[in-house]
């Protein structure tokens, strides 16, 4: 049993109350370890506010979501009308609904920027692999939460967007049709689908999301925060065991985050009050029309934060499969010529290549039914999912001798810039109607996106690297 602390004789009432609580509940410990006495690098910059902003938006989404569920009806015949009731008749209901819809997009904005900061400063490198993996799991969970919540307004785009996305699962060989039926709960998107998605959106996925956020923060505080120099501040400590290049998170970075939060809330409230639809990107105009299973919208597209992956899905056509098959043949040919393996191993390599080419439907142009492989639609689903899953492997793909982009060759910055521009272009094309030019650009963008990661073990080691200082470089 822990020893009881005694309040100092001259302590005031608040201090005595705190000691009384600490003897029964670790209130001071819960504050000091993650905030009050947590030493963070003194060189945090603008990029380090997006983690706390993500936590802020999560709280906004939970609170507004609770109030929305008080009036929302998860019934196919009543859902759209209940949203209209919230917007028109519930006191301040329009504000809560716009806060929730804007918060969904704001969540992805700050998470994308948070992940980009980790990318340029090497925050996924040893010893922070688990921090990054938990973060990617949060991102994946967030995508599921957003997709399921997108159906709930039961508007035209909600209905048909869900119909298209769920039907993609039917492209999975053997189990696809049954899996799509299980997700929908019916042969089409219907009341059963709405109830399933509502249950997961309100209860199941948020619980998993909160657990991952806690795990992410615990893992971060166990290994310590990264910094723009990529230098471990725990390596240099004073006589009391405090990092020489660290400062207490409170009050220095609590003030830092409060300032960033104030700027964020100014932008957030400006969008809510003046442009909550943001030109149809945050709230599509078709979603203000009740869902009609008999009338398909002219152009079906997901919300903007899904569109880069949707562009990759649409980029995988039969022509793209032939191009990928050619790339595979060239890669295997180079490996075949340069390897000194036995004939047996080379034979297995050739057999595996033929099997992959069949799966890629590379023989589809022959017209022979026996040679028909798996349809390109399935590979589109694989590419769309793989674009997210590949992020989990980033700590082991980056072979650079330094963490931060500050000490990498200058041409590495152009590669990162190309990656960002490609991602934005893919996102823009995803909201546009299909076109031949857009299809070609999407295919090139898909190759650049995956090339960035798959070729990283080679290009990340190339070039002249700058010397990394032993301690962080700091100037007031």
Helices and strands in order:
Layout: H1 13-22, H2 27-36, E1 39-41, H3 50-69, H4 79-88, H5 93-121, H6 129-151, H7 156-168, H8 176-184, H9 191-223, E2 246-248, H10 249-274, H11 307-315, H12 318-338, H13 343-359, H14 376-389, H15 394-397, H16 410-430, H17 436-454, H18 456-459
Antiparallel strand pairs: 1-2
Helix pairs in contact: 3-5, 4-5, 5-6, 5-10, 6-7, 6-9, 11-14, 11-16, 11-17, 12-13, 16-17
Question: What attributes does this structure have?
Answer:
476 residues; mainly alpha
Compact summary:
This protein has 476 residues and is mainly α. Helix content is 61%, strand content 1%.
Give the mean pLDDT.
Answer: 88
Biggest pleated-sheet summary:
2 strands, antiparallel
Helix content: 55-70%
- What strand line-up does the widest sheet have? 1-2
What are the secondary-structure elements, in order, as H or E? HHEHHHHHHHEHHHHHHHHH
Tell me the span between the first and last alpha carbons: 47 Å
Number of DSSP helices? Answer: 18
Number of strands: 2
